[in-house]
Amino acid sequence: MPDCLPLLVFPTQHELALVEAELSAKERQHILCRLCGFGPVAAASRTATLVSLHKPNVVLLAGIAGSLDPRCQIGSSYEFAAVRSYGIGIGTGENFQSAEDVGWKQWQGENEQVNGCFGDVIQRTNPHTKSMQKSIEGELLSVCAASSSPEEAEIRKKQFPAGMA
């Protein structure tokens, strides 16, 4: 029997434990908190399994992200209307071209009228989802490798001016 509860997924045990420590026993009865893994491939695969198993009414990803903008403070939580994927495409370094740059859609959809399609940016699909935290204009930038220095973070911010975290 599906649970039909909200599913809150976390990349790491550390992130899961931080949130579970703040939830009362009663609150835990009304939300499913599960690990989804780290990185886009592991997280997508595990989340698909969890969605199939539990049939949640909504899925939320919660985790620790770096900041690309002073309006996003480390340790605070934010809600983004869009997520931009960086690192999927062709080439490396200065020769890198994103999937969207070369005209590819990361999801073509079976029927664009129903399922939509998207390139490097995924817009939130449910505008009726109740805001749980601070909404912020801009995008969450999803990457396979975090910036190793403030200089690398600055390069990403210049590449993606709408990137907030």
Write up what this structure looks like.
There is one protein chain. The longest helix is centred in the N-terminal third of the chain and has 15 residues, at 40-54. The chain has helices spanning 13-20, 25-28, 40-54, 112-115, 150-159, and strands spanning 7-10, 32-35, 59-61, 78-86, 89-90, 97-98, 121-123, 134-143. The chain has two domains: 1-64; 66-165, no CATH class. The chain has a three-stranded parallel beta sheet with strand order 2-1-3. A three-stranded mixed beta sheet has the order 7-4-8, with no helix packed on it. The protein has a two-stranded antiparallel ribbon with strand order 5-6. It is globular and about 50 Å long. It is an alpha/beta fold. A hairpin with a 6-residue loop joins strand 5 (89-90) and strand 6. Helix content is 25%, strand content 22%.
List keywords for this structure.
8 strands; single chain; alpha/beta; three-stranded parallel beta sheet; 25% helix; three-stranded mixed beta sheet; 5 helices; 22% strand; globular; 165 residues
Can you describe this structure in just a few lines?
With 165 residues, the protein is of the alpha/beta class. It has helices spanning 13-20, 25-28, 40-54, 112-115, 150-159; strands at residues 7-10, 32-35, 59-61, 78-86, 89-90, 97-98, 121-123, 134-143. The strands form 3 sheets. A 3-stranded parallel beta sheet has the order 2-1-3. A 3-stranded mixed beta sheet has the order 7-4-8, with no helix packed on it.
